[in-house]
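Section 4.2 – Deliverable D4.2 (structural model, holo form)

The reporting period included a commitment to supply a predicted holo structure for the target in complex with iron/sulfur cluster. Inputs used:
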Amino acid sequence: MKRTLTVCPYCGTGCMFYLVSDSGRLIGVEPSTTHPVSRGGLCVKGWNAFGFVHHPDRLTTPLIRRDGKLHPASWDEALGLVAERLREIQERHGADSLMFASSAKATNEENYLLMKLARGVFGTNNIDHCARLCHSSTVTGLAETFGSGAMTNSIDCFDNTDLILIIGSNTTEQHPLIGSRILKAARRGTKLIVADNRLIRLARHADLHLRHNNGSDVALLNAMMQVIIAEGLEDREFIAARCENFEAFAASIADWTPERAAPLTGLQPGEIVAAARLFAGAKRAMIVYSMGITQHSHGVDNVRCCAALAMLTGNVGRPGTGVNPLRGQNNVQGGCDMGALPDVFSGYQKVSDPMVREKFTRAWGVDALPSTPGLPLTRAMDAAAEGKLHGMFFMGENPILSDPDQGHARHALKNLDFLVVQDIFLTETAALADVVLPAACYAEKEGTFTNTERRIQRVRKGVEPPGEAKADWEIICALAKQAGCDKMHYPDPSAVMDEIASVTPIYGGISYDRLDPLGLQWPCPDRDHPGTPILHIGRFNRGKGRFSPVIYRSPAELPDEEFPFVLTTGRTYFHWHTGTMTRRTHLLDREERRSFIEINPDDAARLGVRERDDVLIASRRGSVRAQARITGIVIPGVVFMPFHFTEGAANALTNNVLDPESSIPEFKVCAVQVRKAP
Ligand code: SF4
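Output (structure tokens):
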């Protein structure tokens, strides 16, 4: 039996475990007892992270579409065709008629290489990844406020803090090991405020549970901050020394009284006052948020308000404080760090900066690099639907299930001249592709992932990939060669990381020999640097923290007579995103086999719906069938639905409206009707 230390492929908590294999096949995992995050524990997904690896559905050979069907092909044939068609589209319609979608499931090295391929080989900044769908509002909002879009503190800080405000994060289900840290902290006396209109598990342990209306976070946070200033509870010393634009900000929220916020939030004014006093009274307070904050048409404004509340009370740059967006996927932080974004190279270095472009031009040995920021993924889907984008390359993404308004996503992809999908299974998106490239999964390759607390950790190969599948980094380099680029040769991923370190200041001190056993937290600018557990100590990355006035905007689509319910979407404990891996893991799939909605008992009684009845849910964009779960977890007028399932897909219903600054879709609020299925 062989044990291989690696990182969990599911959430951004970044637990490490040993893959246990026997005769080249995985037979289980064992948690790492010494790891600072796992500490000998795993959640149900971690314990079962080996379950899909040898599934018979794994892609084992490249596939090419001929006469409407996908047929097996050789690597040379498939990559030759991909290179030829992408070059053809580039020549005919321009480089910006191509789009490359990288992946938060792939390693840092692979994200960096796909970014290099898009920019350095095909000459476009049209490169993005699924952070667009989860935390692009964090990157925009926190970068503007603090100068860095990452979690400010470390997971260890949850053990030593006085108060945690959890807003828009179902932490025990989505980041279970962080959720259990929060529950342990609560048992030791740390106060909890949970702002979420679902009765999530953490809410049952909260000192205060605010069940505010979906999409009313700005009203709630502005009113809390109004109370803090009106009662003189703000940290004047911190504001004077560390922040700017406070006067304008204070003036902007002066009339956001709890009485004004009450009808918008659905809360009593007294609840808002109590939350404000409790938060401001804590010596050390942490804010934890996730997609309940970010996935709105005003997601950036929500993030600005969270950041302002932390600055207002002096809760940044110290242990046990900070603004802590919990990144969703295992390497979504790394995907952003590696510049799989349309406006920055690795390390958030802007493509519009001539000095930065000059540096990358020299390092990559290319003549020039594009200077205009490219298309965010969501805008690229719109462009494809309108016939303005002609070729797309998806690495490990499944937009048919993950993007809003499935009908729109399907139309966009079918409208392309050429679609390439590189993945481990024939996903709903791969089934539409012209060429499918079979990739190795996390357990079959080397590399690094960066977790939610900016910790860069080693991913190690435990078993061989199936059939002819190859690691994403190998496929990208082979494609670059087929496209005529002779500058993307690497003996192994460690050499890619050496190149990343040489051009990326926040990763400047990272090399594989330094990552054992616990990884390093960026920024880590040189080889002697120990890494940075807490950001913004003494000084914000941008100098002073900036208060930004925020104008309240309601969600884009609210219930009416025809569509009387709010639909909010999310995840369950047992499944992961589009279910590609967890639905092929027997023990996880057994727990949740089909799509469902949570509906309040009052609504169910009115509609004549009984527990486990089938219901039809319809929005202006589509309709699906799912099973009803009658529960007080949701309030009357709101239904919740997970988006993991292809049958009864929640994203057939969601609204493709985008935040104007971050282009994130509004997955958390749309209007639907619900009726008992015939
Ligand atoms: Fe994996 Fe996240 Fe569970 Fe840890 S908490 S085992 S990283 S899914």
